[in-house]
## 1
Amino acid sequence: MLKSILPLIIICSPLASYAEGTIQISVKLTPAGSFVAKSDRLKGDLTRTGAEITSQKMSVSIDSFKTGMSLRDEHFYKHLGYESQPKALLSAIKASGGKGTGSLELNGVKKEIQFAYEEKDSMMVAKFDVNAADFKMPHAKYLGVEVNDIVSIEVRVPAPKK
Amino acid sequence: MTRMIILIAMFLAPLHARAYPQFIGHGYPSCMNCHYNPMGNGPLTDYGRAVGADGIASGALYPKSWSEEKVASLSGFLFRTPVQKHVRVQANYRGMEMISSVGTPSERWSWIHMQAGGQLILKFLENDRLTFVGEIGYNPNSSSARATGQDKRKLRTREHYVGYRIKPEVGVYAGLMDKAYGIRVAEHIAYSRILPELTQNDQTHGVMVHGLLDGWEGALHGFVGNLLQPRDLRQVGASAQIERQIFNDHRLGFSLMSSKNDYVKMLSYSLHSRLSLSDGSALLIEAGQTEKISLGSRGDRIGRYALLQTYTRPIRGLYFFTNIEYLKSDLSNDATTVRWGPGIQYFPVQKLELRTDLYQTRTFNPNASTQDGWTILFQTNVWL
């Protein structure tokens, strides 16, 4: 069985890849400061067909994010609705020519997103902004320090080979 | 002469940690999230105390069943969560065992009460836009007073001011504060604090305007000297410090200060950088110069200093640091002093800091030969 599917895997491997990537969420604080929530547990399949890169689904566990401070981690998971939806999902991803679209499902809310991307050093790096209010997250504030609703997201995954 | 300055500084201006600019490594380039004074030092905000409990101090000694939220809830005064929002009381003690002239016949061990004080904070309006901060503390006998049998112990206030944030980005502060200048490193014996006269007891009455705008942060500070001092000693002038955020969490800054009293006119300027190395690690760099023009008699001089501090956080609660300093207290003189040494800073639980510093001081002077000086410090800092 393995012998029969091995050629198929070899033929198809340049076109599709199982991606394990990183996702960084840059969060700004008011009155000052910022932090980055980072996870290296982003998982999914990426396929290249001609000039287009697609993915049916990519996901990341909310509790795999680390912000550099345990209390902030706890607040972060709670704020992103970890208890009701433990994973953030990116689906229906289509990208070509440096731009792409997809759907982000978070906190029980699914919303279209647009992103810009570039390929360098065999990695695909996509960037987009998300407004937390669009995903029904309340404005975050803790002991006088507020979190800006709009956060910047950077996704970094191995690009499928051309 | 340089050596004498160092020795005097060691005894008169003992270490007195009040600000931790290295916490830029935790994603806090500005001091104002954690301190009522936006330029750092002094009483901590509720947020700052929670960050101290959960982000800075080790969590290893807490019961496994405790959540971080539980730990943060104990960060208030006397381990209690504040039940009202207008009044905050804080208290702290810092002392150290200093071993000076290590390994020489004049080696000496002495315990120094560096700081024992209380702070009262009153805060009003939405987002605590209006604050009153007052501090009073015990001023220990200096070594020179002890040597002459004098008792100069007394209570002393090092800050009392009112602050008003006109909007989140702009605030005005009036009262007794540290001057806005350079990096407020914890070490008041740092040459970057001694040469521009920014040490433990160099606060001044004045008005400071602080602002934040699109990656810029700065303060303009007009001051009239410490009004509790004799009039002829008061340094009257102004200072400015401005920082630019670069590459996300790093800061590049410039400071300028001009002041004079009846005896000396001073002009200081410096460049500094605070670099976040992520996960609590950081690099602090400052280089500056101070011109002191003597009024009425000869003795003008220009001094130069540089500071490099590295902080590495291997695990939560523990910091390894290295301090490297350069001083040329008089450019017309050949003597140059370099002081360096490693240290360990450990926060085993919230409200407790243990710190060890080792300093080697070497003076390079073609006209004289001086022995290296070795000093070891063991500090304990407790705050309630």
## 2
Amino acid sequence: MKEAVAGTLESGDIMIKIGPGEGLDIELQSSVAAQFGRQIKAVITETLEGLGIKDAHVEAVDKGALDCTIRARVTAAAVRATGKDVWKD
Amino acid sequence: MRNTKLVTLEEAIRRSGLKDGMTISFHHHFRGGDKVVNMVVDKLAQMGFKDLKLAASSLSDVHAPLIGHIMNGVITGISTSGLRGTLADAISHGLMKEPVVFRSHGGRGSAIANGELKIDVAFLGASSSDELGNACGYSRSENAKSICGSLGYALPDARYAAHVVVITDDLVPYPNMPMSIHAADVESVVVVDSVGDSSKIAAGAIRDSKNPRDILLAKQAAKVIINSGLFVDGFSIQTGTGGASLAAVKYIREEMVNRGIKASFALGGITAHMVKLHEEGLIGKLIDVQSFDKVAAESIKNDPSHQEVSAVEYASGQHLGSATHALDIVILSALEVDTHFNVNVLVGSDGIIRGAIGGHQDTAADSALSIIVCPLLRGRIPCVVPKVTTLITPGSSVDVVVTEYGIAVNPARPEIKERLLSAGLNVVDINALADKASSIIGKPDPLPFGDKVVGIVMNRDGSVLDKIMNIQA
């Protein structure tokens, strides 16, 4: 795994940076952390586990993204980091 | 000596008899460009005053230096319509010992008039004044430096404060007529380099939206008005300053032209949009407590049918003569609306104060039809919720909520619901809107509020509506 980024810092988006790590370690900065931090981390974790990734260091900067956006950005960052294209066929 | 009113700020303060523990007041007509509050409070701190109560008509980002004056004990109490920026953030986290008292514009006017809010010394910025204190929010002289238009929120202070200091950056020959603040109410006149930055009067809430969602909301709001049964010749209207509510004016205008309908008056914070309709002959009179932009400020200076009113005449619930009582339709925005139609415009969904009551309570209560326009979600923040974070305007005075997912009508207004349904509008249950929001974003965790009261929300009748607790995140 190499370091890779997906997403932007626009309102309603989330920027996900994925790199090598031991276990899943998520650092989250969010404008809605108090109310949604737990849910956002859960969506990131589920998405990565769904892609078979169990070890990664994730930095997420959230600007109020919805779950669908979070899943899309995490998936894109994971594909870039691992080189394994989950969208093929 | 002929004139003894013209003095330095320090002399004016000394002369006022101000003592520790007393109440000083300010208006917010210069909005983000205001220099008066910081200038005066800096001077008071320098002169050694402590424990002063600051009664502002509102406060904004530009007043962040007050944080220092709260920490050093110069300011120990605040009452205002709203708070924004770092000052709001610090207060939300528990900066002050004494909670901030929030009043609507009409509520503040009433409280000053009936003596509940007693002002010892009012420091009132003005764009022009003569040496006796006849003052305005604009200037007719060639040296005019600043313009704010209406001084409506300053007028109760000018009339009822025990001592009034006018602060101006344009001293004009006597008599400065027509005047807003009358010399008879003024004890001292102070001339300074600048009272405010006119280019920032329109900063903050006002923006012309190109956001497609705002435009959709605006079109829906216009349809509600057009089909409400109140859209008849001679109607009256007020709009808030949200992007959608300003954009709605455009669509209402089209329909006024199509049907040959004219409005008798527009009320409130007056914007360039309203001035345009007035100049086209579509709105008879403008009743202006606050000029939101330079176009409105110039208009109030030049147009006799554009009338300045005080906060009391605008929206007091205790004066039957106030203009809100004659108001048919108001479009307002919201941070949150709940399933009981209660509205919050003051405290963000993160628990941090980030707004102002303004005329929200007053116009919603007195108008024949109050329409709240807000998106269902702002990012991940829901705007239609089971319960508002802070209660500002009770649901009993809210009639219609317009979102991009449908229009909810207060069950107390079945006739409005019927009219909107027969016009083919997408009328939905308010609970369905809250459910829709929660299906998209999930269930938010509760906010980490502490046990310290940082704000008290007053209703316009002087009763307590809600408390704001400190936020711990």
## 3
Amino acid sequence: MKFLTSSRFSAFVPFLLAAVVLFVLAPGILSDFRLNLLARYLCFAIVAVGIGLAWGSGGMLTLGQGVFFGLGAYAMGLHMKLDDAGPGRAPDYMPPTTDWLPGWIEMFRSGPITIAAIVLLPAAVALVLGLATFKRKVRGAYFAILSQALAAAFALLIIVLGSQSGNYTNGTNGLSNFRSFFGYDLNDPVNQRMLFYLAAGFLLVMVFIARQLRNSRYGELLRACQSSEERVRFLGYDPANVKVVAYVIAAAMAGIGGALFVPIVGIITPMDVGVAPSIAMLIGVAIGGRGTLWGPVIGAVGVAWAQSTLSEQFPAFWTYVQGALFIVVIAFLPGGLASLGSVIRNARGWWDDKRGRPAEPPVAVTDDLKTDVGSRV
Amino acid sequence: MATDYLEITDLTVSFDGFIAVDTVNLTVLKSDLRFLIGPNGAGKTTIIDAISGLVPSTGSIEFAGNHLQGKKVHKIARLGVGRTFQTSTVFEDLTVLQNLDIAAGAHRTPLTLLRRRSAVPEEVTAALETIGLTGQIDTLAGVLSHGQKQWLEIGMLLVQNAQLLLLDEPVAGMSHDERNATGELLQRISTERTVVIVEHDMDFMRSFAKSVTVLAAGKVLSEGSVAEVQADPRVQAVYLGTAAAAPTGAEI
Amino acid sequence: MDVVVSQIFTGLSIGSILLLAAIGLALTFGQMGVINMAHGEFIMAGGYTAFVVQGLFENAGVGLLLSIPVAFLVGGLLGVILEMTLLRRMYHRPLDTLLVTYGVSLILQQLAKTIFGTQGKSVETPTWLQGPIELFGFDFPKTRVFVLVLAVVTVVGLSMLLKATSLGRRIRATVQNRQLAECSGISTRSTDRLTFFVGSGLAGIAGVALTQLAPVNASVGQAYIINAFLVVVVGGIGQIKGAVIAAFVLGIGQAALEKIYDASLARILIFVAIVLFLQLRPQGIFNVRTRSLA
């Protein structure tokens, strides 16, 4: 029992460390501008925690997290625009003659409804798509492609909704020029700090939730599903239900990340939610270590930091770096930086091994794809 | 519990017009240890697939009073039907304990699932004892030896509390001693359960079978005790013993 | 009646573009299990090849026709380089190939922008492809007929390659049973390389065809890659005919929906339709049965 309590305590050390860094060090050292940038990275870290759960633990390569991020972001953005406009009035980007708004826009006037929608909208979309695919044993590459197609369709939908006469979403321009966040003036640096603390707090809560899930029996079952879905089925579980839970939670986390992104960054456009940003959300997770708890967080913050540092001055160079990161990390370090230690330790043995041995024999259709084919019969 | 047996009537399975299993009738009583043997393509594994819901079939499959056909795989598993595969499929990234705990947990409530395991469940401890893996409780299943993986699979069936066990070549690749140990384990298990084994190893079958069904080309050729089946001239003609009469495709 | 005929033609035209973009994927994804996101950039490379090759010739027509085999080689070589450097070590991790090749696609796009600029490059339409052609009493743009014909020729050529040549037999043998193929003396390594060469080369041809509909730019691949993958998913893996049917059905569907709604909404509705279709047939229109499990 003593072992148990001490190991439980040691598990909280990272939380303690993260809390010190986020709530003491960062606000103490960083300027308001830098702190705001860090807050933006934390939003992506919140999304990354969810991806770590769905992809790292559950093996679902979700290329559509931008959709859930966008649903949360647009829910928050619409609320803030409606709030800025004042009771009964339409947001400033809509045609000045607008005297009536459809119910699905009008409902975001309410703060509580908006907050509920930030979690429930992404969760509902993930639930529908998750059940529609997993129940029919559509998975692996097929799920990845469908989730990517969803991202493409969603970005288009936002643009379509903005191009119609009502201009509900402001199309490709997106939502911006916010003045207040739930009554707090966004120009006040104190409120910007508050937003940072909010993001940091949410991040720690999300990591805590992910930790509890990973360590629970459910977490073991989820990893079992990644290992062999069919086997789980023959033990009397429906793997679709197991997977959909992780997918829905990941979607809700992405929604929360998106919702915090809007007041912190001050703009949300279809460019932030489409195919490319959705895949970009994965790279930090991969670098940090998709199967670990903190890896996605550190990776996502690191990549977001590198991107904003590099891409402002050399946008083309950043694209090369991003491409190279995908190639190097996924191909040569699939466990992410978290696995670097063991990779180096094994390196010598591997080198000796390789000398007398031909290259890894290609086995065309194995693992996920093979189970795909088998179960899709 | 007199209804605790497997009853298959007129089972037919076809793939794109090819009839893999042709109007098979099969009754396996509780505490039986039934071996399904036959040349390649006889339909042995397909019968197991049909029972466990992997392939659609016609006819009737009844176990313990439940009709299994048309039910989903995991629903059938929940009715007490457990199976293994030719290639062992344990969860390699999980420990022995985690493998068994998952197998034991199909009836857990969502709330229990969302909590951490506080202690090793009783049935898991018992199964670990039975399959001799108590010492490897925290070993990753992926690093177990081939035989140990097969035993872990059997252990998973035990904690799953399966009443009908369908085993597909459980001793393939095992050493002689491992085979004997497995055979004795299966005999012990079968006293309280219904066990069906697909096997190519004739020595193993002769040593441990309580009854045998011989299949050929999707049909039941012969059925009875080992001695009865071996004495059956039709079986000798297509399969067993007399090597001269063995058609192409027969093994061992 | 006019509307119906022109709609069907538009649909076939969209379908033929989808088919050209997807047919190489049917080989590399459908048969080898590699999810090559850089396939779109191989299409792009084919387009730029047409631009460069045409610049070498006085006659636009000769340049265009000659660029078809050259683009096939360019796409194929890019594919082989990708296969030999990265993918061959990743056949046991198909999902990860998606992300690695996405990285490759980012780099290729940026390279294209650096070399050719962000402005689209127009490939001249030869005089014999300009204007409409009259078929069954209707006028159709010759360029679209050209794309349609090219798609049909490509598919027929590929089917013949798979059915009638020794390379085709090797490809099919390797896909169906790799171990057995190896035992039968087939070098699966070189077969993998060749399969990837052909599949990627077909992307190059698709790139040439697309230059006749719009100027080629760095993001042309992105525009087609997702729909191309959807064609293979709907068609069912391992079958060329599935991809053909899926491409034309999706093409005609999109044309019809675009007539009623706008193009963006049509694409959203197509996505919904595909998800619904997979409810009925999760394995796609056709698929190869296997008995493997786990």
## 4
Amino acid sequence: MTQSPTLSRRSASSTPPLPRKSRQRGTDARAGYTFLLPWLLGFIALTVGPMISSLYLSFTNYNLFEPPKWIGLDNYTTLFQDERFLQSVGVTVGYVVFGTPLKLAAALAVAMLLNSKRRGQGFYRSAFYAPSLIGASVSIAIVWKAMFGDSGPVDQGLSFFGINLGGWVGNPAMTMPMFILLTVWQFGAPMVIFLAGLKQIPGELYEAASMDGAGPVRKFFNITWPMLSPVIFFNLLMETIHAFQIFASAYIISNGEGGPAGSTLFYTLYLYLRGFSDFRMGYASAMAWLLVIVVGIITLIFFRTSKSWVHYSGDSR
Amino acid sequence: MTTMATPTQSTPDSAAPAYNPKSESTGTKRAKSVIFHIVALALTAIVLYPGLWMIASSFKPNSEIGGQNTSLWSNNFSFDNFVTAMDGIGGVSTLQFFTNSLILAIGAVVGTVLSASVSAYAFARINFPGRSVFFGMMIATLLLPFHVVIIPQYIVFQQLGLVDTYVPLLIGKFLAADAFFVFLMVQFMRGLPAELDEAARIDGAGHARIFGSIMLPLMKPALISTSIFSFIWSWNDFLGPLLYLNTPDKYPLPLALRLFVDQTQSSDYGAMIAMSVLALLPVLIFFLIFQRYIVEGVSTQGLKG
């Protein structure tokens, strides 16, 4: 279901034609499952099994030490009266809604800037990509915290312009911008993907548009955007889903507490605290399942609405 | 962790068809080029600043890291912070943390390459009943927030007495649990000509032979991408070790860093940042060496950092 439609179409056609002889089929079934064994074992033991048991646990009270006690929908109804839970939802939604589009806009803008035959393109591409590789690490979280701390370089730099915000880390109003900057800083990965997409747009389209007198804005909306829409869709889906799962940076920057004033209490951090600090495994399971449901709904909405704005031109090539 | 495949598979005709209007004079062209480089260099400076700041700070005395000093340069550069950082924390040397990270990362690479390549061969090259159903499920797990499985997994590993060992952190790698790598290899194998296995089959080769002697050697680029990324992801992983490891002498670097932050707080910023630099060093070295592979991997296969 995550696969982009172009890909699945293309892959379906590129699957090698397989022999139809029944004898062959018998051996292939055996060989198939033998080769598939590692994945199949992992899928059953590490994904399906745990998913079912966490669904069960989400209807229980379980603290690891006493047997789970069935409480029906209580965990779910409690969640919506739990102020910290609601706060974590707010924090995470704010992060996803502002961080992801900003990051993708930066990625697209820089990709368009780099999409030309100019010297140094490879260098810029690598330099811009580097943060994506390290951005989610503990090291960078520590650096971020130091940079945005009281009288850190960001504070210093801003006061040079007469803006005195103090440290961002301790200011509940500024922690979200700090996290959004952290994710926008990692624009390199979607940028590289955009760049690959931009290179596939035939140059003749732009030439023809120029001859018809189209300016850069019209070219962007009439050529670049529609031609790039599958890639935009892909990046938007993946970045959105991953934004929901931010953890290490939130944990390190807030010392594992989600402060100040709960302003960095991201969803997964709260889930972790409930499950592994308070040992409320049932409650945390309910949170995990809500996340799965929400991510599933978002994916569905993305795919549904994609029909109206994502264009696949696979056949024309 | 972040991943997926892009719709933009690179095709032979993808050499940048940059458009140059004929009417432009060489003068405006040069001006445009200058503006491009000014903008791009300014962006580079902003993007690289946190990294440069981190490296510069790791050589500075504590008094100069915060305070009134924003410049990257200092007259008091020294290795003192690194000396302190190498002492480690909680009675465990930093070398031990490095070793632990390395064991986990190498285990992750070996496990992922083995299990993902074998499973991918089944998906890409063998026709068996249920293949498309399983393939769909494998794809679905790519989007699944993994938090939904960590609680039951933890409970099971705890009952098996495997908490505070590396088993929970590595077993998934040997069972192709990072579906992304399976997907990557399936896509790669599908790009290899089917005639190869047909010819081998006519010559009487079984699947084991075809996989071992034909597919694996041809899959080198995919295996390299997989190795690089599984190494880096394992190296940077924080949640897994945080859940499963309790004794400091088993900690990999990210957990050691957290311990360092907890115990020293802001008292020794310099050493803390020096240790952050040390923890990132292998990733940065990897990036410098395999830059092309990494960036190409991202653009053609949608791999991410």
